Automatic annotation (TrEMBL), chains A, B:
Residues 34-53 bind DNA. This is TetR/AcrR family transcriptional regulator. The lineage of its organism: Bacteria, Pseudomonadati, Bacteroidota, Cytophagia, Cytophagales. Residues 11-71 form the HTH tetR-type domain. It comes from the Bacteria. It comes from Chryseolinea lacunae.
Length: 204, 204
DNA sequence: AAATAATTTAATCAATTGATTAAATTATTT
DNA sequence: AAATAATTTAATCAATTGATTAAATTATTT
C-alpha cells in the first residue's frame, strides 16, 4: 500500500480537480460544462478526472452539496441563536450574506439554476427547512407579527439581500454603473436592509 | 411561388416550432436543450427545425428576445406614465408582475441564467436602461428620497416581487408549503409589497 | 533492490448531437 | 394538366463528449 505520499498526492490532485470543478460548474452550469473544461482548468489529463471521481455527475454532486451548504448553511446558526434579538439577527444575516456574496457573486444564480433542473432532488437537501421551522428566529418573528406568514419576511429579507447579486448584470445595465460603484451600493445595503426590514415589521 | 397556403402552413409549422422552443428552452436552458427535444415537443421532423430556423442558436436568439421583452418590457410604460403618482406606479408594477409571473413562473430564472452565460451580449439589449433612466418614475423617486440611490428602491421592489418566484422551490421547501398555499402567499403580496416599499420610502 | 500498489498518460470508444443532403410529397402557378 | 415552388422526411455526417483501457511511470512496501 502506498500511504503517506499517496495520500498527499491524492489530496493534491484530487483537490485540484475539485477546485477546477467548483469554478467551471459555478460559472457555466452543469449542462454547459464539459469534463474537458474541468480537466484543462485543473491542468490534468481527462482520464484522471474519471479516476478520482467516477463521473461528471459524481463530481457535480460533490460540488453541489458544498454549494448548497455555502448558500444556506451559513445563516442557520445565526437564526438559531437564542441570545440575540430579532433586530440583531437581521443585521448579522445581512452582513454575513453580503460579505459572502461579494466573495462569491455567482453562487446564488448557480444554485438556483441547478435546483430548477430538478427541484425535488435538491430541495430536500436543504435541511434549512427543518432548521428554519424550528429556529428561534421564527418564534421571535411570530411574536412580533402573528398576523403575517413568516415566509413573507424571509422572502423580503433574502430578496433584498440576495437578488441584487442574482440580477447584477441587469441592475448594472439599467443603472449604467461600473462594477466599482455597484460594489459601493452593496456595501451601503449592509446597513440599509436591516432598517428597511424593521420598517416592514412595523407596518400597520 | 407558393403563396397563400404556403404562408399559412409556414406560420403554422413555424409557430409550432417556436412554441416548442419557448417551452423547452425556458424549462431546461440553452445548453441542456437538444434540438431533438424541441422537434419532438413540436411534433415535427428534426430537419424541419433547421429548414425554418437556420440553427439552434438562431432559434434561441428569437426566443430570448421575446423573453427579455416579456420580463422587462411590460413595466416600462407603467413607470413612464406621467399621470400616475409614485404610489400608484408601485401598486401597478407589483400587480402586473405577480400576475405575469404566476402565469410564467420560470421566466425570470431562465432569463437570469442565460444572461449569466454572456452578460455583455444581453445586458445591452435591455433598453430598460435608457427607458428607466429617463422614466418619470425616476424623477418622482428622486424628489421623494434624494439621499438614496434610486437603484436601491428598484432592487427592493424587484427583489421582493420577483425573487419569490426565482426561489420558489427553496421557499416552498423551507416553509413546507404545498403549491396551492404558495400561490396564496403570492396573491397576498400583491397588496403587501406596495405598502412595504412605501414604508421603506419613509424610513429615517 | 525487488515487488507491489498507486498514479498518470495516450489512444480509443460509443453515444450524442447539431446540421445537411437528396429524394419524396404537397401545394401553387401557369 | 403540366410545371414549378415549397414543404417534409429518412438517411447520413462530422464533431463533440463522457468514459474506458492498456501501458507507462512513479511512489511505497517488503
Amino acid at each position: 500500500m502506498a500511504k503517506k505520499k499517496t495520500i498527499e498526492a491524492d489530496l493534491s490532485t484530487q483537490e485540484k480537480i475539485k477546485e477546477a470543478a467548483r469554478k467551471v460548474f459555478t460559472q457555466k452550469g452543469y449542462a454547459a460544462t464539459r469534463t474537458r473544461d474541468i480537466a484543462e482548468e485543473a491542468g490534468i489529463n481527462l482520464a484522471l478526472l474519471n479516476y478520482y471521481f467516477r463521473s461528471k455527475e459524481g463530481l457535480f454532486e460533490i460540488v453541489m452539496v458544498e454549494k448548497l451548504q455555502q448558500l444556506f448553511g451559513t445563516i442557520v446558526p445565526i437564526l438559531n441563536d437564542e441570545g440575540t434579538t430579532l433586530e440583531k439577527k437581521l443585521e448579522l444575516v445581512v452582513l454575513c450574506y453580503i460579505d459572502m456574496l461579494t466573495a462569491h457573486p455567482d453562487l446564488p444564480i448557480f444554485v438556483l439554476s441547478e435546483i430548477r433542473v430538478d427541484p425535488e432532488r435538491f430541495s430536500q437537501r436543504i435541511q434549512a427547512g427543518k432548521l428554519l421551522r424550528e429556529a428561534y428566529f421564527l418564534k421571535q418573528l411570530k411574536e412580533r407579527r402573528p398576523d403575517l406568514h413568516p415566509l413573507h419576511f424571509v422572502m423580503n429579507l433574502v430578496g433584498m439581500t440576495l437578488f441584487p447579486f442574482v440580477g447584477k448584470p441587469i441592475f448594472q445595465a439599467i443603472g449604467n454603473l461600473p462594477a466599482k460603484d455597484y460594489a459601493v451600493l452593496m456595501e451601503e445595503r449592509k446597513a440599509l436592509i436591516p432598517k428597511w426590514v424593521q420598517a416592514i415589521l412595523k407596518t400597520k
